[in-house]
Design goal:
This protein is an alpha+beta fold. It is built from 20 helices and 21 strands.
Length: about 575
């Protein structure tokens, strides 16, 4: 073979080999493409999804809490939380410091958190940041740092309704108050979406919905925000003016048992709870018990009238203003001598009311007090509600009966006491109270006759007169039935000499009762500490506004003759 032919043979072989290799590569690539795209596309799709597609929970909107007129007391607003994937996070020292500063955190704390969770793909850096902070975080464009949409609870009325409404935690779960009580109703069911993430870890808008969210339900309270504001302002001013330790006030609708207002002082801001203790959140009107003092004298009077041993015209000898029982001296403010039932209530005679109690059988007196809801749940089911306390009648001494008559030896919350006054006001029916708006009168049970209740309420009107102990609780153009209480505070080994609870419980209008209110001020400082001087004015101020707001017809307008005489 010539040299030229040999070279040509080798060149042809090389070309054919290259052709074969090229064809093989093309066939191989074609087969691989067919395998990836047609025969087995799942593998790479799954690999891609594992890196960029996530099943993301979609937060459900928590239901609103509204007052009886639809005013919002608790709402949820959309916010963002900042999270990080430690496995994808890439940032130099300066960028990390900038991120930490933007979030209001220490750089070392952020670095430690990332290092401690390096095996994870998701950790929160900061929950529920402001829109401004969220925007600044996005502008940093850091790999592995992203935002997640959530909801933040906001309380428009802040301190005014804080103890009542309560608050939620960072995960939007109720922790206190009605937020806790109705958490199951308010909480929605989260949804689920398949979302794609971009190179920085942020989720791209849109996505495939896998499970729809179910928003929480709204609840409408019985609270009238107008009355709540009135009560809040009046109680706050009184507690501050008299440098009291605390105060509570409750207003009930006598017809329905609805709680129209409930306030405690001092209050707190649920939108900013930094530095607060768990005791600051306590709704003392429901959870705290105290000896109600002379505010229960109408209960003792009702028991005496019910027994038939006493009538409204009966006369009690209280001379000389003291009364010894089992070696203990019971005292009146002064010697009232022989007085009838109405004067006994008007002057708040401890001696007179003790004599009525001692004329009763222990079990009967205990049953009659229980009929006013003492030591019994109110039916409101508020978290942490106290049941109250009544002494065991089987172990009563004479002194125990005598002191029970004017409110020592038993314990009640402000809400329980207000419920007891509702029995007086509605003609002897004990009914549950409610924080939820209702248009129907709740089922109750008759515990006293209407006649006995009317007789006691009429006597209580004398308390709010110039001759009574609570003239400062009067409301112009309305008849008020009420009772004061000035209770020595219990301490170790007995009662403190100069520490008191100042109380007033009242019903208005007395001729056709609509509202019952209890005001309790704990440990006022200074020379004034009587219930009529401290708590009575709170009732007067709040009810003056309430009668106008609720458009309740006056039942004590001056007669035309008096108006004409006044012109002269």
């Amino acid at each position: 073979m010539s040299r030229r032919k040999a070279i040509h043979h080798v060149s042809a072989w090389r070309i054919n080999l290259l052709r074969l290799v090229f064809v093989t590569l093309v066939v191989g690539l074609g087969w691989r493409l067919a395998d990836i795209q047609v025969l087995n596309p799942e593998f790479l799709r799954d690999q891609g999804d594992a890196r960029h597609v996530r099943k993301v929970p979609v937060a459900a909107h928590r239901g609103m809490i509204l007052d009886r007129h639809g005013e919002p007391l608790a709402i949820s607003t959309p916010v963002h939380s900042v999270w990080i994937n430690p496995q994808e996070f890439e940032a130099n020292k300066k960028q990390l410091a900038t991120l930490a500063k933007t979030l209001g955190l220490k750089a070392q704390k952020v670095r430690n958190k990332i290092n401690q969770n390096s095996h994870r793909e998701f950790i929160y850096l900061k929950r529920r940041v402001t829109p401004e902070v969220a925007g600044r975080v996005t502008s940093l464009e850091l790999a592995g740092v992203a935002l997640q949409r959530e909801y933040k609870r906001y309380y428009p009325t802040a301190e005014v309704t804080s103890h009542l409404v309560g608050f939620t935690n960072v995960d939007d779960r109720g922790q206190e108050g009605l937020e806790l009580m109705h958490n199951d109703v308010l909480t929605g069911v989260p949804g689920l979406k398949r979302m794609v993430r971009d190179s920085r870890g942020n989720f791209v808008e849109g996505g495939e919905q896998l499970k729809a969210t179910k928003d929480g339900q709204n609840i409408q309270l019985s609270i009238d925000l107008r009355l709540q504001y009135l009560t809040y302002q009046a109680l706050k001013e009184t507690v501050s003016q008299h440098r009291a330790r605390s105060g509570s006030a409750v207003i009930l609708d006598i017809q329905t048992g609805e709680v129209l207002a409930m306030v405690n002082q001092p209050s707190f801001n649920p939108n900013n709870r930094r530095g607060l203790k768990s005791s600051d959140y306590r709704n003392r009107a429901v959870t705290d018990l105290f000896e109600p003092g002379s505010t229960v004298k109408p209960f003792t009077m009702a028991s005496g009238l019910k027994s038939g041993k006493f009538k409204p015209t009966s006369v009690i000898d209280t001379h000389p203003g003291t009364f010894k029982v089992s070696g203990h001296t019971i005292k009146d403010f002064r010697d009232y001598g022989q007085i009838n039932m109405a004067t006994l209530i008007q002057k708040s005679s401890n001696v007179g009311i003790s004599k009525i109690a001692l004329a009763m059988k222990p079990t009967q007196l205990w049953q009659d007090f229980s009929a006013f809801g003492m030591a019994e749940a109110t039916g409101a089911y508020f978290p942490g509600e106290a049941m109250g306390r009544m002494p065991d009648p089987q172990k009563w001494r004479e002194l125990d009966r005598a002191t029970l008559a004017y409110g020592y030896g038993l314990a009640s919350s402000a809400l329980q006491l207000a419920r007891g006054y509702m029995v007086l006001a509605n003609g002897g029916i004990l009914q549950p109270v409610s924080f939820i708006k209702t248009s129907e009168k709740p089922l109750g049970r008759r515990v006293y006759s209407t006649d006995v209740m009317k007789q006691v309420v009429t006597m209580m009107e004398g308390v709010v007169t110039e001759q009574g102990t609570a003239k400062l609780a009067a409301v112009d153009n309305y008849r008020v039935a009420g009772k004061t209480g000035t209770v020595k505070k219990a301490n170790k080994g007995g009662y403190a000499d100069k520490r008191y609870l100042s109380l007033f419980a009242g019903i208005i209008p007395a001729s056709k009762p609509r509202l019952a209110m209890v005001v309790m001020v704990d440990d006022p400082k200074g020379e004034d500490y009587y219930g009529g001087l401290i708590a009575g004015p709170v009732f007067s101020e709040v009810m003056t506004g309430a009668m106008r707001l609720l458009n309740i017809t006056p039942d004590d307008l001056p007669s035309p003759q008096l108006l004409i005489a006044g012109k002269h």
